[in-house]
Design brief:
By secondary structure, the chain is of the alpha/beta class. 39% of the residues lie in helices and 19% in strands. Strand 10 (294-299), helix 7 and strand 11 (318-322) form a beta-alpha-beta unit.
Length: 437
């Protein structure tokens, strides 16, 4: 007998997607108020690749009518400005060499009528999609009844579905079916217990309501970059120091213990333009309140070619740099770097500058994503990693696997016994200490 879910589940998914698409479409309408989503459809040339503005710059909303864009690289100012001018946004940006500003003009009466008309059109399109999904489900159920499915089974299924999900339209599901988001909603968070680091107080240099990263890893607990950078902007250097001082003082007064202060959070910490200075402030505050604690930086290795970043990382007690694979194709599949110039050969060469001091961190996993197999535990992968570790000669290697929900839902955690076996082999063949978590 045919299960009613065969027809109801696809219909429900189509209806949810219609609501989500409508919500997304309405958020991109320029209605007289500054909204970073207005830039979502604009792409800029980044080393030959078309990238969203949020992937190459910090986007914030300093007031109700202004969008501020601060590129991470000076060379991107002209590219971003040109992309905005050539887009359908219809606004000329202001570029003073430090920040690009978009001033949202107030609505005219004519523009208001256009927006009402556009919104109604978007809503009608969503209604049509919902009606079509309902029609397909009803036709499928009628066909199933003719083929022998009892009508009471159909009614029970419909009633149960209605009771389970009475207000699904208000959930605002994300259009990406792979999205899983666990953001840190503050600049200083924790302390939390880290498998690798112990009692760890986190420092988040990304926005508290969005993600900014030069990777878009399949396993990132903060979700995919598609969620956007939020509206809060990057925390100011002075604000980070103030918040950290207050937290450390409170912990010391309460008699709490602290093993490490860790730069992690909702993206790549070295993307913050003041990262070196913020790290120095953190080292100073650590010495003042918890001199026995270490300062660690979890870095994805994408900005090691910048001298100021590399030099700052050398000052950290634990400079933890990422290398998930020594094969470029796997890096592109697993870590999904924004820059097409990022290759295994490039990052391995840059990691050599931390010989004897750096800690190389490798996420081990297998599974699939959008029909493509993902596995960095194969013999070919392990051999390539061993060669890379020998060339880099780090102080230590950290191996770990998935421990939390991931945005790509078809990934598998490597069993502890298998992970320990991989670690033992790497340590035996490289002579480098391997920590398995």
């Amino acid at each position: 007998m045919t299960d009613p879910k065969t027809y109801l589940d696809p219909a429900e998914e189509k209806m949810e997607m219609a609501v989500a698409y409508l919500d997304e479409s309405l958020s991109h309408i320029r209605a007289g108020k500054a909204n970073p989503k207005l830039l979502d459809g604009i792409r800029v040339d980044y080393y030959g690749s078309a990238a969203p503005i949020s992937n190459v710059a910090n986007v914030s909303v300093p007031d109700a009518r202004t969008i501020a864009i601060t590129p991470w690289e000076k060379s991107m100012f002209r590219e971003i400005e040109k992309a905005i001018i050539n887009s359908e946004l219809g606004i000329t940006p202001e570029n003073n060499g430090e920040v690009i500003r978009i001033s949202i003009p107030p609505l005219t009466e004519e523009r208001r009528k256009q927006l009402v008309k556009q919104s109604k059109a978007e809503a009608e399109q969503a209604k049509v999609s919902v009606r079509n999904a309902r029609r397909d489900a009803i036709e499928g159920l009628k066909k199933a009844i003719k083929q022998g499915m009892p009508e009471d089974v159909e009614k029970d299924a419909l009633q149960g579905r209605s009771a389970e999900r009475p207000c699904k339209g208000y959930d605002k599901p994300n259009i990406s079916t792979h999205m899983q988001t666990i953001l840190f909603h503050s600049t200083i968070f924790g302390p939390i217990h880290s498998r690798r680091l112990g009692s760890s107080l986190g420092v988040n240099l990304s926005p508290a309501d969005g993600k900014i990263c030069s990777f878009d890893c399949l396993y990132c607990e903060a979700g995919f970059n598609a969620q956007g950078p939020g509206t809060a902007g990057l925390p100011a250097k002075e604000e980070v120091a103030r918040l950290l001082r207050e937290k450390l003082a409170a912990m010391k007064e309460a008699g709490e213990m602290l093993d490490v202060i860790t730069f992690s959070g909702n993206g790549e910490p070295t993307l913050h333009p003041d990262f070196p200075a913020i790290l120095d402030d953190t080292l100073r505050l650590r010495s003042e309140f918890f001199p026995q604690a270490k300062v660690s930086v979890l870095c994805n290795s994408t900005r090691l070619d910048r001298p100021e970043v590399a030099e700052a990382l050398r000052r950290a007690d634990n400079n933890i740099v990422k290398l998930d694979s020594a094969i470029t194709a796997t890096i592109r599949l697993l870590d999904r770097p924004n820059s097409p110039a990022f290759t295994a050969e490039k990052v391995i060469g840059e990691l050599k500058q931390f010989a004897g001091t750096g800690i190389v961190q490798t996420m081990m996993l297998r599974g699939s994503f959008e029909g493509q197999a993902v596995d960095n535990t194969t013999e070919t992968e392990i051999k390539a990693l061993i060669e890379a570790y020998r060339a880099i000669a780090p102080r230590e290697i950290m191996l770990y696997s998935i421990d939390r929900p991931t945005p790509a839902t078809q990934l598998e955690k490597i069993p502890a016994e298998e992970l320990r076996a991989i670690g033992a082999r790497i340590q035996a063949e490289t002579g480098i200490t391997v920590q398995v978590n």
